[in-house]
Recover the amino acids of this structure.
């Protein structure tokens, strides 16, 4: 089995894990509203399963494991895990701007207008949408 097909199989497995275990066990149920909280995550999981299956059946090109790219992906995974931990300890309002600043500096963004948008405006917009419009609590 090629690395290309293996990546499609892995994507399909992750989609099934999301659809059958993570989403049902970690999504609230809501009696009101026209859109249930699990609808969009379920649609996304189905798209991931279908995309992984198509990629498994009809792989295109070649896939090579690049250790430098993998190490960079691991760095971003570690930053994300630390960000979620900080969010659990300090809350969204404190952790989200810090996480955005670290991510933006890690990818090399140094322009002040973009840093302000990413560190202040984007977390504020997310807070407004989730907490105020959707009336869902953030950590």
């Amino acid at each position: 089995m090629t690395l290309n097909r293996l990546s499609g199989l892995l994507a399909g497995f992750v989609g099934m894990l999301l659809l059958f275990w993570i989403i049902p066990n970690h999504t609230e149920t809501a009696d009101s509203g026209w859109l249930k909280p699990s609808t969009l995550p379920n649609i996304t999981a189905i798209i991931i399963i279908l995309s992984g299956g198509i990629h498994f059946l009809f792989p295109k090109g070649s896939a090579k494991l690049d250790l430098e790219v993998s190490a960079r992906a691991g760095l971003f995974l570690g930053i994300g895990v630390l960000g979620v931990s900080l969010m659990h300890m300090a809350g969204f309002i404190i952790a989200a701007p810090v996480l955005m600043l670290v991510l933006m500096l890690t990818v090399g963004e140094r322009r002040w207008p973009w840093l302000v948008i990413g560190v202040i405006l984007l977390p504020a917009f997310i807070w407004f949408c989730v907490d105020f419009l959707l009336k869902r609590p953030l950590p």
Summary: The chain has a mean pLDDT of 91. Helices lie at 3-26, 39-57, 67-90, 92-106, 112-133. Residues 31 and 37 are 10 Å apart (CA to CA).
